Amino acid sequence: MARPTRRDVAQLAGVAPSTVSLILNNRAEGLGIAPATRQRVEEAVRSLGYYPNRHIHAVLSGRTGNIGLYLRSDQWGTAHGYWAALRGAVERAVSHADLGLLVYCGRQDIPTEEAFARQAGGVVDGVLIFNSAADPIAARLLETGMRAVEIGDSASPLPYVAIDGADGVRQALQHLHSRGYRRPCFVNFPSSYEGSIGQRCTAFTAESERLFGRPGPFIDTFIGEHALEAILATRPVPDCAVCVSDEHAYALLAWALKRGMAVPQDLAITGFDCLQTLGPVPVTTSVLTPIQDMADASVAKLQSLIAGDPVEKETVLPVGLRIGDTT
Fold it and tell me: What is the 3-state secondary structure (H, E, C) of 74-116?
């Protein structure tokens, strides 16, 4: 059976094919097409099972209606954690904007140029990337002028939407100070991609020196047991830990409890992002990150770039602090 065409819809509705196009492109009201005519066309579309050819529309308009999401090899394949939460927020934002989303899951063995080529070439109208200011893909996007927005990294050369992570660190330290803790440390992870982590580290050094009289030490190690061992080997032993993420905070919490430590009496712990947890575990005190607001603002900024509208390069959203069971 042949696929129904625009002419078939027009014949069934008793209108011209051009009228069908105007109605399906949401231009009926602006051009004064009668509601009854629009209703006949819509009924004919449903009856015939007609769907406009998106490829032809893309050629004529110069837009696909799709945006790309480039993910580094460490940003996909997880069902929980920050990347999973951010991916879900982007999916909701894209759905609300009535756009298509093409996700490219990068691999470590694929060169930057090949990864870029898979986003270019008219497949998508623009690209979103996560926390990758120092990733070569960001420089490549900037160099070619492809419409792109970075989510999460305020050190990005691209237009971005990020949070005030430095203020989050300051809020966590001020809270710990008010609870009587005096020997903070910062549990970090080494990353060659993200520039915003450096801003948090700078804020930790300055604020811990201001509040406690000296800058606290950095625990740059792997997650969980290794972080706890590094904390306990530090002299003097820290009595509180500001973690760069909730993944680090919950892993540290799990190992501290396994070791028989009392949290927060022996070690207070704060996290970042207020991620949901599975199961009845203690809730961490955590910097409240507006993840959905970041995704919504990023998609809106990318839409403006695609439309050729001017945008501000920097969008920085405020954060709060959720007080939990670990401080």
Answer: CCCCCCCCHHHHHHHHHHHHHHHCCCEEEEEECCCCCCHHHHH
Dihedral (Cα; 323, 281, 153, 83), 10-degree rounding:
-150
CATH superfamily of 165-288: Response regulator (3.40.50.2300)
The amino acid present at 203, given as its one-letter code, is A
CB contact at 8 A, 167 and 319: yes
By three-state DSSP, how is residue 209 classified?
helix
**Predicted confidence (pLDDT) per residue in 91-121, tens digit:** 999 999 989 898 888 777 766 666 666 655 5
- Tally of CA atoms within 13 A in the half-sphere of 296 that contains its CB: 6
> Does domain 66-163+291-318 sit in CATH 1.50.10.10?
no
Q: Mapping DSSP to helix (H, G, I), strand (E, B) and coil, where does residue 300 land?
A: helix
Q: Do domains 66-163+291-318 and 165-288 have the same CATH topology?
A: yes
| Mean predicted confidence (pLDDT) in 258-269 | 97
Peptide bond into 318 cis (omega under 30): no
Looking up tokens 């900037």 gives 142
| Contact assessment for residue 128 and residue 70, using Cβ atoms and an 8 Å cutoff | yes
The pLDDT assigned to 166 comes to: 95
